């Protein structure tokens, strides 16, 4: 009989293979990608940030435009898949609460929440059977979340994602530590978080994220004690990824030295692929912004060197001269664009080989 990978159990949900597709904004992971991953047994995730055409909206319409876009993407994903669909919601967003409530209203299976500690998340999902999964970058963060959730809401996370410093996009570590490679290794973080997760009954499943690229990596983290992995970068280079083809080509054409860390207006370091816009930022140029909507709680439009929401939206639509591409450390290893089914089949067979 063929050996199977261990499934990831999140409450009464069974994820088999134990792979969560990372939520990638702005407009990178939408309904088509999420449905394709869910159809293969993984968790398909829609990134809620900037889904609506906010660039054309008045400031007062910002929240409604994005809520409607999220509602639409969830319904589209549901129409294409009977599998597990999740939503990623960033705590740093000014419209965080309304996005979470919209996802809950639509009966989403799970909500993944990072870019800040989601200390109030259970408040917006009471009386609903939605799994809540925080993203943490330390064991201490998980302890704080568990303590707060238990005390205020009588519940614990249904799973936890531990994201290391090799991730794409915003990274929850000190800028200098990331640049100098001094941030803690994902192995170390997983072991520390496992200790906390195992102190609860039932045990909280731990999911490894940040730089997970192939079956060898998946097998490594499963052996270490993780119950599953989250992967973003690999899913960009798939037929079903909802982003513009020119965005995918940036990954295919990237060299290792093109991956750089920039300071984001979010207040965190961000890993991007070097291009015209990134070179301008790195050389100290600013892109003056008139901000109608203040999408990030932590951004001060008066001092921000550029608008990250617009830069990411431009890139997603294929305008790479006026935007940039977030990517994990291993993005340069992506060499072809393939169907999601082929990617997951390859990942599963590689993982079995290395387990």
Task: Put the structure in a nutshell.
The chain has 355 residues and is of the alpha/beta class. The chain is built from twelve helices and 14 strands.
Write the layout of secondary structure elements.
Blueprint: E1 8-10, E2 13-15, E3 19-21, H1 31-39, E4 43-47, H2 62-80, E5 84-90, H3 96-105, E6 110-114, E7 131-136, H4 139-153, E8 160-163, E9 169-170, H5 175-179, H6 186-197, E10 206-209, H7 215-224, E11 228-231, H8 233-236, H9 245-253, E12 259-263, E13 269-273, H10 276-282, H11 308-316, E14 325-326, H12 340-354
Parallel strand pairs: 3-11, 4-5, 5-6, 6-7, 7-8, 8-10, 10-11
Antiparallel strand pairs: 1-2, 9-13, 12-13, 13-14
Walkthrough of the structure:
The chain has 355 residues and is α/β, with parallel strands linked by helices. The protein has two domains: 8-244 and 334-354, TIM Barrel (Alpha-Beta Barrel), CATH 3.20.20.70; 247-326, no CATH class. Helix content is 35%, strand content 16%. The chain contains twelve helices and 14 strands. It has helices at residues 31-39, 62-80, 96-105, 139-153, 175-179, 186-197, 215-224, 233-236, 245-253, 276-282, 308-316, 340-354; strands at 8-10, 13-15, 19-21, 43-47, 84-90, 110-114, 131-136, 160-163, 169-170, 206-209, 228-231, 259-263, 269-273, 325-326. The protein has an eight-stranded parallel β-sheet with strand order 3-11-10-8-7-6-5-4. Strands 9, 12, 13 and 14 form a four-stranded antiparallel β-sheet that branches. β10 (206-209), α7 and β11 form a beta-alpha-beta unit. α2 (62-80) packs parallel to α3 and α7 packs across α12 (340-354). The radius of gyration is 19 Å and the shape is globular.
